[in-house]
């Protein structure tokens, strides 16, 4: 679910510097690319039926073997693997920290959909002074800046804000010089209990979209860029704001 085009347009325009008349000069195609809902590849209906049957305990071994022998990159195969993993490890370690929460509910789908090596490790930041939204926006902006250094003309970054079991996927683009615009493009929920398995296809759809965007990004990066093009892109990079924290006042 995302905001309609007209609402997104008004929100984006409100962030543009008023001293520069960007609205009239801004290419309509650029604004539409920001506001329009991206196309997500939908999981087949069989994936939802599979999750429902597993949640009800009705899936049999023959069905599991059929899905296991299918195309390993297909959404149906991915959903089947993740559902089996959830059922197998649902009584594993209790959630006691941000790291264990992510490892139990989020990282399985990241490994299955995005990572080629299933034993790849994740790293965590213990810095909690800023809220999660601020940290996410800074990380996404840094990704856009790194793409500019690589010579990508129209960089974009994707990030997921996790609030309990509810997730929001954001897409950030550099609309004009110094204006980094994040737009919420997808909302989905993590699978907490077995009867929530029907939410699994929505998760897979979200990260499958990320996988396809990464493939597009690799094609752009591998396209040879001239030194002049890279220099022009580097000029567009703006420094991130620095969050300043006031020292705590001692109580008398």
Give a description of the structure:
The structure is a single chain. By secondary structure, the chain is mainly alpha-helical. The protein contains eleven helices and three strands, in the order αααααααααβββαα. It is globular and about 60 Å long. Residues 1-5 and 19-24 have low confidence and may be disordered.
Distance between the termini: 50 Å
Number of strands: 3
- Biggest β-sheet strands, sense, barrel: 3 strands, antiparallel
From the alpha carbons, calculate the radius of gyration and give it in angstroms.
21 Å
User: What is the residue-mean pLDDT, rounded to a whole number?
Assistant: 78
Widest beta sheet: strand line-up: 1-2-3
Overall geometry comes to: globular
**Treating each run of at least 4 consecutive H or I residues as one helix, how many helices?**
11
Record the SSE blueprint.
Elements: H1 5-15, H2 22-25, H3 28-35, H4 45-55, H5 61-68, H6 75-89, H7 98-105, H8 107-113, H9 132-149, E1 156-163, E2 166-176, E3 179-189, H10 200-222, H11 227-234
Helix pairs in contact: 1-3, 4-6, 6-8, 6-10
């Amino acid at each position: 679910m995302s905001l309609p085009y007209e609402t997104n347009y008004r929100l984006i325009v409100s962030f543009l510097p008023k001293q520069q008349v960007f609205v009239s000069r801004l290419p309509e195609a650029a604004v539409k690319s920001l506001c329009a809902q991206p196309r997500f590849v939908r999981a087949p209906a069989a994936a939802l039926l599979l999750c429902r049957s597993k949640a009800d305990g009705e899936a049999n071994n023959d069905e599991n073997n059929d899905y296991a022998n299918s195309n390993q990159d297909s959404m149906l195969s991915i959903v089947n693997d993740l559902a089996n993993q959830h059922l197998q490890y649902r009584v594993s370690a209790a959630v006691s920290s941000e790291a264990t929460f992510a490892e139990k509910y989020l990282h399985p789908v990241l490994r299955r959909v995005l990572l080629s090596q299933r034993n790849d490790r994740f790293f965590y930041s213990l810095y909690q002074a800023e809220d999660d939204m601020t940290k996410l926006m800074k990380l996404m902006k840094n990704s856009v800046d790194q793409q500019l250094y690589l010579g990508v003309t129209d960089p974009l970054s994707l990030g997921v804000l996790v609030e309990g079991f509810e997730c929001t996927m954001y897409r950030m683009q550099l609309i004009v010089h110094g204006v980094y615009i994040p737009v919420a493009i997808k909302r989905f929920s993590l699978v907490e209990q077995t009867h929530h398995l029907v939410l699994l296809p929505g998760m897979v759809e979200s990260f499958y979209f990320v996988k396809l965007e990464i493939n597009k990004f690799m094609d752009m990066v591998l396209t040879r860029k001239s030194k002049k093009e890279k220099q022009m892109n580097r000029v567009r990079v703006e420094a991130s704001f620095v969050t300043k924290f006031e020292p705590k006042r001692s109580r008398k």
